[in-house]
Amino acid sequence: MPSLDMELAAGGRVAGVDEAGRGPLAGPVVAAAVVLRADTPPELAILLDDSKKLTADQRLAAFLALYASTAEIGVGAASVTEILRLNILHASMLAMRRAVSRLRIPPDLALVDGNYPPKLDCAVRCVVGGDALCLSIAAASIVAKVIRDRAMLRLGLRFPGYGWHSNAGYATALHREALQRLGPTRHHREAFGTVAQLRLDLTIAD
Length: 206
What we know:
This protein is an alpha/beta fold. The chain contains nine helices and five strands.
């Protein structure tokens, strides 16, 4: 289970930062920044872990508990248009910068999951596998994942057939089959391999 040790050792005001949605074929990338208090209650801390290790119900419980707590949360996103213009890595960095900028008070240090630091107006420390090691990064991973999944659920109601309510835009068999049958939407990332290949196949077929 992640701990607050890294945040407390860093001193000052520390934000955990993570993103969700770097790998899907469709939809935005969403990032969150979370500042936890040093006195985060154990009943909240025990809910927090790498979002990928949690069930949907566990993520929702943690998400609701975070928003009901004294934690400070900022959320940012980068659109499909920005992903296509910047590439997914730099769009993810943009989403992280937006998330941090929406914190009420700027942090002294951002602990960022992964090994590529976004350009922020504070010190940045990258933590590989940070969502499994650092409580604030785990919290950020949960917030980003729940908000992105909700966004994909809403998009799925407008664009039925791709299974976004269950696959959140990832390249599942159902999603790939729907792409072949229905073609891509404006919310698909046309530069991504599966979508780009479909575009090529359709062009050749024409």
